[in-house]
């Protein structure tokens, strides 16, 4: 199995790798040893050609006629996605979305450890969310360093999100997931992803409007 | 401008159309009249070729050298995505995620009107969330019909999500957005999308592990 050439992976491929990863975990639980590109494609509503193309990225993998070895492929994808290590995450803002994220058990399962929670509301600072004490956002620079934070999730209202993100970056965080519905402007060295809850609803609206989706 | 051939749009393209749509709204607010594929690509960290390919879907559009007309392109994408009409949405489950979604102002802005909220917790039924009274989930079939619900958002715990989804489908809902971290099995006629909060974190993990993303 050759070393993957990461520079060639597109964002859409990474997204599909996350999807294959979940499918493979399910398949392992269902005691599958191997899976064909056809079967995997069918489960995830993709084409077999797309699956083969995405997985060809891992070099020659799988045996023609036998399919891909489920456990091994899962491990390889986990390595590529960086899921074989623990990531220390700081959550900024414990409103409704923030509270939901603290309770979201999938994060810890995939190695995303919410280690710090910040807010600037005096009524929230010091309170306990799932065993984590809410810290004062003023202390972010000190705590990001001492707790070795890798990523931050921003879950503050839209009108304060840019100022919040600027402080998070100044504190030394290099990867941010933004839940606020605005486009953050950040320095080029910061990795930024945004979670817009509307986009998935727009997929539904598209499908209902047009009666068909292909991929 | 020719009629788009919807059958050819892939899921990744739909996703990017949602992204272009947001970029165009921002550009309009910034008083842009036209935008080049190069500029649009740069804003969204895509390649100009990708942008041109995606937008070629709308037939010949834009004038070589002048770029795409911002307002017109925004309107065309809104039509394609089904954002020019109002969609009636039922929210199932008002735990943390459900409560966050009720407060998410972007939904209404894009035409997604949360019209009904359901729960099966007697303490929640009858309570008021942002002006909407929580209904008993037992009454879903009756209310979906009378309130002309187009889509449902499932925000219940993973272990009850499949049973909940089955009842939602039985009530006549044909499009579901699932927030529970499980793979729902639904009849083929139902349009299903899942929002997994982990996937965006995995993009960050990938980028931090591999030092580069291209698209």
Can you offer a commentary on this structure?
The structure is a homodimer of 215-residue chains. The first copy, chain A, is an alpha/beta fold and 215 residues long. Chain A has two domains: 6-81, Winged helix-like DNA-binding domain superfamily/Winged helix DNA-binding domain (Arc Repressor Mutant, subunit A, Orthogonal Bundle), CATH 1.10.10; 87-198, 3-Layer(aba) Sandwich (Rossmann fold), CATH 3.40.50.720. Helices cover 43% and strands 17% of the residues of chain A. Chain A contains nine helices and nine strands. Chain A has helices at 11-29, 37-43, 48-56, 70-81, 96-102, 105-109, 140-146, 158-170, 197-210, and strands spanning 34-35, 68-69, 87-92, 112-119, 128-129, 132-136, 151-154, 175-178, 191-194. The relative contact order of chain A is 0.10. Chains A and B meet through helix 1, helix 5, helix 6, strand 8 and strand 9 of A and helix 1, helix 5, helix 6, strand 8 and strand 9 of B.
What order do the SSEs of chain A take from the amino end to the carboxyl end, as H and E?
HEHHEHEHHEEEHEHEEH
Can you count the helices of chain A?
Answer: 9
The value of Rg of chain A in angstroms is 20 Å
Number of extended strands of chain A: 9
CATH homologous superfamily placement of the largest domain in chain A: NAD(P)-binding Rossmann-like Domain
- Uncertain runs of chain A: 1-6
Q: Which percent range fits the helix content of chain A? A: 40-55%
Biggest sheet character of chain A: 7 strands, mixed
Structural class of chain A: alpha/beta
The greatest interface here is: A-B, 68 and 69 residues
Within the largest sheet of chain A, what's the order of strands?
Answer: 5-6-4-3-7-8-9
Arithmetic mean pLDDT of chain A: 88
- Strand percentage of chain A: 15-25%
Instruction: Give the total of domains of chain A.
Output: 2
What's the quaternary structure here?
homodimer
CATH class of the largest domain in chain A: Alpha Beta
The name CATH uses for the topology of the largest domain in chain A is: Rossmann fold
